[in-house]
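We modelled the chain as a single entity of 328 amino acids. Its sequence is:
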Amino acid sequence: MLKLAFLDLVPVTDNGTVAQSLANAADLAAHAEQLGYSRYWVAEHHGMAGIASAATSVVLAHVGHATRTIRIGAGGIMLPNHAPMVIAEQFGTLEALFPGRVDLGLGRAPGSDQRVAQALRRNLASDERQFPQDVVELQAFLAGDERLGIRAVPGEGTHIPLWILGSSLFGAQLAAMLGLPYAFASHFAPDALDEALALYRRQFKPSAQLSEPYAMAAFNVFAADTREEAEYLASSQQQAFVALRTGNPGRMPPPRAGYTDSLPPNARAILDHVLQCSAVGTVEDVAAGLKAFVARTGADEVIVASSMYDHDARKRSLALAMEAAKSL
């Protein structure tokens, strides 16, 4: 059966609260666990009114206590924002709380603008160009490498599985060189998907963590009992993407019937391109979309993204996505 994971940005709706979004995240993770999803990942973003996952490790601790078996992790931590030792300590703590269940996906994008990045780091001396060195340093902290001269406690000796995340060839090359699993952000940046996966598999070098390449790709799913309802539910995420791309990000808006038809052709073309790795519709529609996506990518695992305004509809979409995966 196709292996499905779930990616959550912990969306905040226009009339909701952060507290409610966090409660929804825990409920959604428990639901995903019950359905048979392999992992529940949370992504780091900052300074965005519609996303409540900024303190990623804290959110994961909250989610971990609501679940028992599903893997939990970051998809991802934007490492240029942090000292590697701090992340080793945070995720070492999570591993102590939830042994054998923690993943650590790493990205080099800031997850914010430069003003937010400076507020996070207090200076800009650390940047994305140091990302490979930061990954290696983080590995050393988690391994308890004595050459560092200092210890990450908790953290040392945990050997938490690291993933490299990316939407370009850079991440694919780094994951291959370090022998780490690779996850591609095709749910919003699909352009380099095929080339990046091919490069990763071609250049992969075995490591202590991984003997063969292992690739995961992201795919949007908006599933409902009818295609019309699914299209309606998907419009909240579509509106959020358009708002972000036009410099007006905000909280997740309610769905709008006929939203894409109301857009000018250039805006609709941008939306269609950005969200091309998506399935919107019934179980049958989602099954067909997943089948084609896996045939295209050869992904070992698919991580589903599905932000919806209504929490119950989102849970239903997750259930239908798993039903679709089991039918393949």
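As a brief sanity check on the tokenised model: The radius of gyration is 19 Å. The longest strand covers residues 215-223.
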